[in-house]
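Obj: model holo form, ligand = iron/sulfur cluster.
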Amino acid sequence: MAFPGNRDRHGRHLTRMCLLSLLMLVGCSGPKPPHPARVADTIAAHEGPVQGPDTAHLTAELNRVRAEFPGRLQAADFFVETRVNQLKQAPCAQCHAAPVDLDKAPKAHWDIQLEHAGNHMMQCSTCHDPGDHKSSLIFLSGAALSMDHVYQQCGQCHFEQLRDWEGGAHGQRVAAWSGERVVRNCTGCHDPHQPAFPKRWPVHAARPADETLPIQEISHPEEGSAHD
Amino acid sequence: MTKSSSIKTWVRRLLNPEALRYLAADDPEGDRSFAEGAAQVMDKQLDRRQALKAIAGAGAAGAALVQAACAPLGGRSEEAQHRWEEFFKKNYRLMTETERAETVTRLTKLAADDRGGAPHIQTTPAQPGVLFGYAFNISKCKGYQDCVKACIHENNLDRGENMQYIRIFEIENGQQSLASANGSYYHEVPADGHYYLGTQCFHCENPPCVDVCPVGATWKEEDGIVVVDYDWCIGCRYCQAACPYFGRRFNWSAPQVPPESVNREQHYLGNRPRKKGVMEKCTFCIQRTRQGKLPACVEACPTGARVFGNLLDPNSEIRYVLANKKVFRLKEELGTEPKFWYFTD
Ligand code: SF4
Ligand code: SF4
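Output (holo structure tokens):
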């Protein structure tokens, strides 16, 4: 069966098979890398000093002061929102000429309810100095402190929060993610007299779960009543 | 008349019913703009009746007349022209700078007509050395939903369907599964014995939603933000099915935003108005964050549960969280590598 074209056809067949298997091989590895990129690797490969967007105009108007950590040699590299210029009744010397007995219920400050770690531990005089009206706050040691640096006072007990606040895991940055770092003071979010966040209604009524995600299959009977 | 020009004519007619309406309507205003349009294109005075005669007599004239309705004339025909050009524009990624500027001009004009005020539509590109990341503190979230409200306003979300990008789940203490979570609670919060966990698009480093899009209408930008070209999306919803996190939202109806509360500071890939039948989702507030601002949800959170920043900056807050806190991500085993971490105090 020696048709002249036969050999040739075999040859072509072979070439095609080769091509096909090659394609299949290539197809398996695909156009994408076999292992998905990890964010950690991307970060490691590209991290470095960054020139982010210019945000000077966003932070220019903010009342801020450079954070200070007593006992440290190096100045902090971030700023904290000031407090004194936001207060109407500070310093105390505006009204009180003489020392005040802070452990009696203060009449002028009737609206202040102290709910901060219990009265056996925290009293007005734990943070405020009744004798020296130059400043409104004192450390546990009795040393004076500006309200602009109230984080130092809170940090006496809440040292873990202070550490996270300095690093950025606690608290809130203001205005911009890049450029000069300005953060809220402790008292920017917490009422120092009642530092826990209050119970209140949500500001938005959530949309019922979409049918595309089987997320609400199980409903709790006790929650059901809370909805109505 | 050549074959190609007659096809063009038909396409134009189909795409521009306004032009056909000019022929049908019997108002003098329509007459004038029609005649003017024809005059400009054909360089010859023409009134409506003449025009109708012409269209009956000669196909070529008909082509020109229809084109006239698309010519830049002001009023309805200018709008028609813009809509025509909008319809045939490219995918955002393929546009040159000039084309981007042109579409922004058109969109600005069209939006000004529709919504009673001109938006400012940015095309700010990703900055080098920036990879956005997000962290959510589940110890801090109290379920107040201030973030959800801020997001709705910032991103011009559909008020008609009550669309929201962010969802806050109320989860019983001791539970971790979202299957037992309540995503539509409405009572005083924080509820005793519960904690709160927020989700939104996680801007995955390996986004499955991007892989499945048949037309390349969604992609990951250089700074890690996963975006949608609303004018290129065909609304097939493959991406929604592919997202393991329910990150995407579909416009089943034309989105409704009261004109007075439209946020006019917009980005082409962000909060500019969407239309019926297209996909949308969280963009990490691309219109804000590419200007250095914080996303609206981060700014609105009253408890500081939300941390945002540049993952490539070793001194950023987000990097502090990743280095010093115990973090986790949802469905990590899928390999999607979300750039959205959860942590506790
Ligand atoms: S969370 Fe969903 S929509 Fe967002 S990038 Fe990941 S897969 Fe895509
Ligand atoms: S809905 Fe739009 S973005 Fe999503 S896959 Fe389909 S075309 Fe792509």
